[in-house]
Amino acid sequence: MENEEVRRIQLTGKSTYIISLPKRWVSKMGLKTGSQIVISQEGDSLILTPKDLVKPERNLLEAILRISVDDTPEKIARAIIAIYLNGYSSIRIRALSEYILPSQRNAVRELVKRKLVGTEIISDSPQEMILKVLVSYPELSVESSLRRMCLIASSMHEDAVKALINLDRELARDIIELDDEVDRFGFYIIRQLKAAVQDDKILKDIGLSNPKDCLGYRVVVKFVERIADHATRIAKNVLSIDEELDEFTLNKISEISNFAKSIFEKSVRSLFKKDYFSAEEAISEAKKITIIETEIIKAITERRIDRTIHPNIRMILEDIRRIGEYSSDIAEIVLNLNVNQIIMI
Length: 345
Known about the structure:
The protein is an alpha+beta fold. 58% of the residues lie in helices and 12% in strands. It is built from 11 helices and 8 strands. A 4-stranded mixed β-sheet has the order 5-6-8-7, with helices on one face. It has a two-stranded antiparallel ribbon with strand order 1-2. The chain is flat and about 90 Å long. The two termini are 27 Å apart.
């Protein structure tokens, strides 16, 4: 190709290998004898960059967010999350007026506490707040973070059905609170993946081997968040039910819940074991969940004198079905990540 050249490696002395640089490139970059070049490795390739053009690592950058009295707490929170996800290690929030409003300040504090893993407020003055991301990439890998996310989501689902069976409103409220914990890990993983796509060293540090895996894991994170959302919806429905449901209905709900939970657990195991064939089994099993839901609705309706089904029951069954479907979607990602297991070369 026109922009490619083949050059031979030469040995100088007993242990030093050298290769000459194309004169056209040296001239274009404005280099001369004594100029410094940074050599970085990306996979099996070496990247040569004039030192003056090397950008500082993203995780060392500081972002400055200027806010006005008209900015709502929600708008500020969205901006901070966006900055956090893009890998900045320091976020300086400055008021355009004389001070940050109390509502704005409280929103930042709640966001840091509930949503941003490894982030602390290191300075808090009337006109400025400084957030610092203290955790580094190797300290919390994508896999360990995602495992934690999956465990919390699975526990939320199981406890939501338990809260329904016992009509335990306190447990239901605890489940709703746990949704923030899933989001925290989700944001942190996305932050890691964004950085890993651009830096081969970070990719290795967080436990991944290929940049293309980042997209797959990003989608898995979104599916796990959705599963936690549906568990939260079940818990919210529990809070709106006035009296305990009959035993037959509860048994049927437990039946489909256990089925959906088993699909989720199988999909997650196939993800971490990188098992194409186990993921395929999970997908095949998940296809039954719509049929099971329809049969349960029919069975519950036939047992009721007025032939109607409580709206909350229908919504709970729909949430459980969606958990099963998102679990199947996770297994689909596993197929894409491990397709080499079925390709004959």
